[in-house]
Amino acid sequence: MNVKRIVAKTSREAMRQLRDALGPDAIILANRAVEGGVEVLALAAEDIASMAPPVVEAPATSAPAKTPAAVVQDETEAAPAVTIKRRLVERVAVPSADSTQLAQSVINEIKTMQMRLESQLADLAWRDLPGRDPAGAAVMRDMLAAGFSATLARELLEAMPKGDVEQVQSWTKNTLMNRLQVMQSETDMLDGGGVFALMGPTGAGKTTTTAKLAARFVVRHGADKLALLTTDSYRIGGHEQLRIYGKILGVAVHAVRDAADLRLALSELRNKHTVLIDTVGMSQRDQAVAEQVEMLCQAGKPIKRLLLLNATSHGDTLDEVVQAYRTRGLDGCILSKIDEAASLGPALDCAIRHQLCVHYLATGQRVPEDLHLANRQYLIHRAFKARTHASPWQLDDSELAFALSGMQAAHRESVVALG
User: Fold this and answer.
1) Are 49 and 1 in contact (CB under 8 A)?
2) pTM, whole model, 2 decimals?
3) Could you give the domains of the chain?
């Protein structure tokens, strides 16, 4: 059995080389992403067929045995096509069900061995990291402990310059600060005006944040140049909560139910300098999220969409939220519940990887005091602030290799599945 290994830049090129080398019936045993392209392990169809046991025909009992001369005479009298076909059938054994099961068992065993080998190599590589690269190991440990994803940590590790632990840690923080996009000034948002919609899942703080932004605008431009809209007709008291805030600020609040209502309301409020829309909260897995996004896109007027990210949420949850709400693009995000979050790493990681500009930080329920401009230095410093060793999520040095190798294996499998 001769297993063929092919390495190419793309999957298409690998398949072309595979057909040229083993023919169109080749059996692919495994494929994975490697440095510079993809790797494919394949086996020729003839090798699979050779695993089949020989086919033994049962002797005929009803017909008398023929002499060799009689056999030759019969074949001569038969049609040439039939004779050739019979001879081919006699010489080539058709794989039986048992042989197919045997071939599948061999393929599964090869895949299992490959996964074990890759896992052991990854374990050895990460276990050797503290001795081979103490600074890199320290950065990986710090980032994972701060709540950043393994994907972003590996990305920084690959681009990390040589240096001691303190130099590399300083480089990591500066790199994260440079990659984190924040709104530098409120001037463009408050003075520029327009229509803004605050979106996000239930409980992210959209209504309270809308009231905080409205209060900032009223202080700057007056209540007569601002209007508030709400699409929250589902939550009990949702509309009334914003109406109370509007009454305190002296701003009119309008309720809309669908795209037609929204177009009509924006047309009537076209003389307003700024319009803030408080959308209804819903799960990121709800299909109605796409309908809500479409409603805002069909309003007949450009609407800037700001996504509320709950800083207390898990990183995978935040990833799902961004994926669900960014179908038609996002103009930025607001990090809410900063005062309740034990770590800002997951929220900052999500904003960095998805290139979302952080406009504001919501740090409490007070209106309008608990809303602040995003500050890169504060956010990164807060993310890496020393965590207590009593935390059940704190990794020991001995556990770091197992965690990293497992994350790398999961990442590799996802790359192979996508590629």
Assistant:
1) no
2) 0.64
3) 187-374 (3.40.50.300)
